[in-house]
Amino acid sequence: MPKLWNETIRAHRAAVRDAILDATAALVAEQGLLSVTMSQIAEKVGIGRATLYKYFPDVEAILLAWHERHVGSHLEQLAGIREQSGDALARLEAVLGEYALIEHKRHASELAALLHRSEHVARAQQHLTDIVRELLSEAAETGDVRNDVAPEELASYCLHALSAAGSMQSEAAVRRLVTVILAGLHPRADSF
Q1: Alpha helix segments (H runs only) across 32-118
Q2: In this structure, are 39 and 85 located in the same domain?
Q3: Model confidence, pTM
Q4: Domains contained in the chain, number
């Protein structure tokens, strides 16, 4: 087959897959996790059930794929912030602030419980830890972050502390949380 034909087919399949993911997420938001069926998804996308089954075996698989795409876009966003120009401390602050807002907007639900036990979440968490650890190492080298604690431990501290953003009542409270976390990273002349 010509290359253009293969690319067209690949683009079509990607578009159908994205439509399936988006339709499923919309239906779950409207009706709840347990109410959505493969027939409803196929109808909303405008494809036959047989076609839908060529892409995914069940609703749970669709939701896991949707979540993986969603998490991947967050990681790309955070990695993009890490790669921006500027000093490491400013980029670290931007990454922590953005991640805190992501945590703040995440909703605890039966859907979250289903999606957060999958393998891609562990990989994403490791990728996020690596982003923060790299920035912490860079900032420690310039003296902007304490160097008496290993960057791996500081990354764990930051990410665990940022999980509290999910229970904050406002974005202002989330920003204050990030400020407190950053204060804990400040180099200290005296040791405890």
Answers
A1: 38-45, 49-55, 59-83, 88-105, 110-115
A2: no
A3: 0.78
A4: 2
